[in-house]
Design goal:
The protein is mostly helical. The chain has one domain. Helix content is 79%, strand content 0%. Helix 1 runs antiparallel to helix 2. The chain is elongated and about 50 Å long. The N and C termini lie close together (8 Å).
Length: 134
């Protein structure tokens, strides 16, 4: 039940991230570089990795390695971000692909992965307690 809720939240977040990346939004920028935009990218992809990893933690499949799963999520998140940048260039006239966006996305992914690796043992312990409750 809890894992289903986690999956629902992760899917909705992913869809909202895709849609918000392809619609026209106002920008705050300094020349062609927008520090606010890059922080939003970093935060969005940090959240993307966190939500998907939390779902898989809640799903609690003992056959799935914590690190292996985390790195797969990170790779898919990076690929998703690159795909969105390509789609912006192909399907929109008001958004442009930007290498700095990809770097900001990667920064968010790397930050999330680093935090999960740092707290791996604590998260595994917490997960076993959650599974006792539910």
């Amino acid at each position: 039940m809890v894992a289903r809720a986690g999956l629902f939240v992760a899917i909705v977040y992913t869809v909202l991230l895709l849609v918000s990346s392809l619609v026209s939004l106002g920008k705050i920028s300094v020349g062609s570089f927008s520090p606010t935009d890059k922080l939003m990218h970093l935060t969005a992809y940090f959240g993307l990795v966190v939500l998907w990893k939390v779902y898989f933690i809640l799903k609690n499949n003992p056959k799935v390695s914590f690190k292996n799963n985390l790195f797969k999520i990170a790779g898919l998140a990076l690929g998703f971000g690159m795909l969105i940048e390509v789609l912006q260039g192909v399907f929109t006239s008001y958004r442009e692909p930007d290498w700095y966006d990809i770097l900001a996305n990667a920064g968010g992914v790397i930050l999330a992965v680093s935090i999960f690796l740092f707290f791996e043992k604590n998260l595994k312990r917490l997960n076993s307690k959650i599974n006792l409750i539910f």
